[in-house]
Amino acid sequence: MRTTVEPLAKRPPAERLLDTAGALFAELGIRAVGIDRILAEAGVARASLYSSYGSKDGLVHAYLDRLDHRDRTRWNDAVADIDDPVDRVLTFFDLALASAPGKNFRGCQYANAATEFPEERIEPVLAHREWLLDTLVALLDRAGAVDSVLVADRVQLIYDGALAGSKFEHSTEPIRRGRDLAAELIGAARDARQAHSDA
Q: What CA–CA distance (Å, rounded) separates 48 from 45?
């Protein structure tokens, strides 16, 4: 049975606002998009913004919360049939490889938000990064990597750099190279654990 996407005009005002804002924020940046444009494109009255999100800041946080939830779900779905913990780690890079061209190489949306608001500690951004790091540590523990916390921190650093490089170069090659570097790092960490066990 085919499913259809409900037209924007038929969705609740809060959902229309969030959908419209999310698309505009991702394409143009958060500060570049005024609330009047969001309201006009969503076809929603200003009162609906205040009743649903309180302000543009509230809408921004809702957008980043949704982004965090979407990305966690996307990764969980992608690794559902993957048992090997290293392959699960590398899936972060694989998802970025698949999505970067469709996003016109805009880079990491969490980093973009943090760059636009350098004076703030944005909770959804911090929560996403904490989840990513915790997930990496747990997977590297399972993989038998020595110093899993240190290795996870380095893998996250490689991932951050790969996404930034992709944005600068307008290419997936930095992500591909980052994936290779992460795989090499994890392999070395596993070998070090094995060598320590054999000593």
A: 6
Cβ neighbors of 84 (< 8 A, separation 6 or more) are 143
DSSP letter for 6, please: P
Contacts of 165 (CB under 8 A, 6+ apart): 174, 175, 177, 178
- CATH class belonging to 64-198: mainly alpha
Domain boundaries, the chain: 1-54, 64-198
Yes or no: domain 1-54 corresponds to CATH 1.20.1250.20: no
Q: 35 exposed, middle or buried (CB, 10 Å; 0-12, 13-18, 19+)?
A: middle
Which residues, 6+ apart, have CB-to-CB distance to 17 below 8 Å? 38, 39, 42, 44, 48, 49, 52, 53, 59
> What are the tens digits of pLDDT across the range 75-123?
999 999 999 999 999 999 999 999 999 989 999 999 999 999 999 899 9
Given phi > 0 = left and psi -120 to 50 = alpha, else beta, which region is 170? left
What is residue 34's DSSP assignment? -
Q: Which parts of the chain have pLDDT scores under 70?
A: 1-9, 193-199
Terminus-to-terminus CA distance in the chain, angstroms?
Answer: 60
